[in-house]
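Example 3.
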Amino acid sequence: MRSRTDLGVASATLVFCAAAYALTFRFDKVPEALMSGLGAEFFPRLILAAMAIFAVLIALGVGNAPLAPPPRLPRMVWITGAAMLLFMALVEVLGMWLAAFLFLVGLGRLWGERSLVKLSVSALGLCAVLYLVFVRLLGGNFPLGLLGALRS
Amino acid sequence: MDAFLAGMAILVDPYMLFLVVAGTVLGIVVGALPGISGSTTTALLLPLTVTMTPAAALAFLGSIYCAANFGGSITAILINTPGDPSASATAFDGYPMAKRGEAGKALGMSAVSSAIGGIFSVVVLIVAAPALARLAYQFGPPEYFALAVFGLSMVAAIGGDSPVKNLLAAAFGVLIATVGLDLTTGVERFAFGVPELSDGIDFIPVLVGLFAIAELLERASQHGTVQDWIKLNKVELPSLADFRKCAKSIFLGSSIGTFIGALPALGATTAALIAYNETRRWSRHKAEFGKGAIEGVAGPEAANNAAVGGAMVPTLALGIPGSTTTAIILAGLMVQGVRPGPHLFTEQPTLLYVVFSSMLAANLLYLVMGMGAAKLFARIAMIPDAYLWPAVFVLSVVGAYAPNQSMFDVGTMLVFGVIGFALRRYGFSPAPLIMGLVLGKMVEETLKQSLLIFDQNWLMFLSRPVVVVLFVITLGGMFAPLLARGWGRLYRAARGRTA
C-alpha cells in the first residue's frame, strides 16, 4: 500500500541522491599512475545507488507500513527553533554564558513557567555548574562575544 | 586472571568508584526522565569523557547504560510513560499494577529482575567476549566487511514496521561517514571547501543533535500534555511467592535479552518486547497480562538489562555496536583513538575488565539505589519541561562546542537536530543513522582492503566461508521481514477466499 507522504519522502530522497551523485563528478581526479584500487567517488556512489533503491521501494510501498501525513507543526516548535537561532546570534554578541542564561530564562518562560525568580535562580545555577566543569576544571575557552572582546 | 584482578582493583580507586556511582545515579535519573533516554544521556555526556582515560570513560558510560534501563521503568510504572524506550514493555503491566495500588511492588520487582538480568549478561559477557575475540582473530578485511554489512542489515529490524526506512537511514549514515578526505586517494569528498569538513563530520555534534536537539523539538511539538502521576509510598522487595511466580520470566528475560543484545544493532527495546511476548506465551497466568501481571514486569525488565551486557559482546569483541547506546560508546572510544576489536583483548585486557567490573558494580548499585531511593528518583523525574528542556539545549551546546572549541560544531549539532526531528516525523528512527555513521568508515576501508587483496575481483568474496555465511544471514535478515509480510498477505487472501 502506498501513501502520499511516503511518495513525498521517496521523491525527496531521489532528488537528494541525484544531487549528491552529481557532486561526486566534482571530486578531484587522481592521476591514473597513482591510482590503486577504487577511486574516491566509487563508495559514495554505491551508497547513493543503494539509497535510491530503498527510496523506490518506499515509493512502491514495499517493506514499510504506509505513513499517515504528519500533523502540522505546532507553534511552539517554531518558537523553540527561533529561540535556538536567536541564541546562536546572541553568543556572538554576549558570549556563551550570558546567552545561555538568557536562553534558559526566555525559553523557560515561553514553555510556561511564570516565576522569573525561580527561572533566573535555576539558570544561574546551571550556568555556574557548567562554567565550573567546562572552564575551571577542563580548561575550555568559550566565546566571550563582542561585549567580552570590548571588555578585554 | 591478572588482568581480571587489575580490572577489579581499579574499582577500588576512589576516582573510578566515583565515576561508577555518578554514572549509576545519572543513569537512573535521566532514565526516569521521560524523553531523555540512555542513548541521549550517553550522547550528551560524551564530550565530558573526551578528557578522561578510555578506562574511566568506559566505566562512566557503561554505568549510565546499565542504570538508564532500570530508571526508565520508574516512569513507565508511575505515569505509563517509559523514561527510556526499553521500558515500554514494562508499562504494559507495571502501570496497571500501580493503578491498583501496587506501584511499590512493581518497582521492587523491576529493580530485582533488572539486577538479575544485568548480572547474568555481564557474566555471559565475561565468558563470551574473549571467546568471540579469539575467533575474530582469524578474521581479515573481507570478514570484517561482511560483518559490518551484517551489522548494518540488522538495522532493518529496529523499530519494527519500516525496515526499508531503517535501511535508508543507515545508508544515509554511511554516506555522512564518507564526508572529508578519502584516506586511500587523499581526495576531499562533500567538503565544499569548508576546512572543518576536511577531516569528516565529528561524531559528537551529530550524536548530540540527533538525540538531544531532535528530542527537544519533539517535546516542543507535544508541549502542554499533562501527565497523571501515581503516588508512590515505598518500594517493596518482592515476596518469596512473587519470586517463585516470576523465576521463569526472569530466566527467560535474561536469556532472551542477552541473546538479542548480542546481535548487532538490536538493543534493549527489541529484547524487552520479545521477552514480554515470550513471558506471556510461557506463563500459566496469561489472562492477567495487560491487567497488572507481575511477570509482565519481571520478564521485560530482566531482558532490557540483560541486553546491555549482551550488546557489549560484539561491541568489544568485534567493534560492531550491539545497540544504539553502544554505537555512541564506540564513537566515544574512536574519538579517543581506541578501536575495540579482538586486538583489544591482547593489547589492553585491563581496559576490558574495567568495563566488566564497572558494569557488575553498576548493576548492584542500582539495585540498592532503586530499592532505597526510587521515590526520590521519581520526584526528580517530575522536573517541569520549562526547566528541563532549555537546560538540555544549553548542555548540548556546551557539549558540542567543548571538544574542538568550535561554533561550527554547534551549528552541525543544530542541523542534525533538525534532520533528526524531520526523520522522526516521517517515520524514520535515528538509531540506524547512528549505526551507519559509526560503521561507515569500517565498511569502506574493509571493502577497499578486501578488493586490493582480491585484485579487484569481487567474486573472490565467495571464496571465504565466513563471508559467505555472513552474506547469507545478511540477505536472510534483510528479506525475511518482507517475505514474512508477503506470505502473511497471501495467507490472509487465501483464507478470505476459502471463508
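Residues 116-137 of chain A form the longest helix (22 residues). Chain A has a mean pLDDT of 87.
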